[in-house]
Write a structure and sequence with these properties.
Blueprint (H helix, E strand, L loop, with lengths): L1 E5 L12 H13 L4 E4 L17 H11 L1
Parallel strand pairs: 1-2
């Protein structure tokens, strides 16, 4: 299975609050048979999630790739 909507970019939106939480989410997904995850944080929503890709989201995704 591929998860095409996952909020593991920690500290960006209503998903994982920390790196540790994100890694736990990824580990649980793998144990349940998930073979790949598309990281899809909420962003650029005025008044809600005004985090932009250039504001560190890509660094967080790189960290998750490196650690998993």
């Amino acid at each position: 299975m591929l998860d095409i909507h996952c909020h593991v970019a920690y500290g960006c939106d209503d998903g994982a609050e920390s790196l540790e939480a994100a890694l736990t989410m990824i580990e649980l997904a793998a144990k349940c048979g998930t073979k790949g995850i598309a990281v899809t944080p909420h962003s650029n929503i005025p008044g809600s999630y005004e985090n932009f890709f250039r504001d560190g989201i890509s660094d967080k995704i790189s960290t998750l790739r490196r650690l998993t």
